[in-house]
Specification:
By secondary structure, this protein is α+β, with helices and mostly antiparallel strands. It has a single domain (3-114), classed as NADH Oxidase (3-Layer(aba) Sandwich). 38% of the residues lie in helices and 17% in strands. It contains four helices and three strands; from the N terminus they run ααβαβαβ. The chain has helices at 3-11, 18-29, 47-67, 83-86; strands spanning 36-42, 71-75, 96-104. The protein has a three-stranded antiparallel β-sheet with strand order 1-3-2, with helices on one face. The longest helix is centred in the middle third of the chain and has 21 residues, at 47-67. The chain binds flavin mononucleotide. Flavin mononucleotide binds next to strand 2. This is Nitroreductase domain-containing protein.
Length: 122
């Protein structure tokens, strides 16, 4: 089962259920109400090296958060929409937005957090 399909089934979103799908998208772009969201940028002149470093750093953040009882959600979709960030942060010229990472204590009773994706495709 693909991750997206399993997630939407857990959330009770039927295929073609545009309203529910839209609501889930809003939650995604609200970082699932996490208290903290980290945005990862890379230097434009050292792209591949910086990209590798950023992914290693992100994994370290995810594991270290887990070790401290926190939960994370790496969100590739947050890398698609840079303009709102420019209103809040002084981003050095040319820096490329890679993705975001939501961070908070996990709320286990939330439906979205009850989804446990399989680690291998069947
Ligand atoms: C490259 C990548 C991008 C992702 N982007 C998003 C995203 O934008 N929104 C989202 O809800 N989950 C996204 N996910 C999925 C979650 O980060 C996470 O992997 C998923 O909830 C499963 O978590 P687990 O592997 O810790 O069980 C992405 C995963 C990967 C690998």
């Amino acid at each position: 089962m693909t991750k997206g399909k399993g997630l939407y089934e857990t959330l009770g979103i039927a295929r073609g259920g545009m309203q529910a799908w839209g609501d889930a998208m809003i939650q995604n772009f609200m970082f699932f109400d996490a208290s903290v969201v980290i945005f990862i940028f890379i230097h434009p002149r050292i792209m591949i090296t910086a990209l590798v470093d950023s992914v290693i750093m992100m994994q370290s953040l995810v594991l270290s958060a887990k070790n401290r009882g926190l939960g994370t959600c790496p969100q590739g979709s947050l890398g698609m929409w840079r303009s709102p960030l420019k209103e809040h942060f002084d981003i050095p010229k040319g820096y490329k937005l890679v993705c975001g990472l939501a961070l908070d204590y996990p709320k286990e009773d939330e439906k979205v957090n009850q989804y446990r994706p399989r680690k291998t495709e069947s």
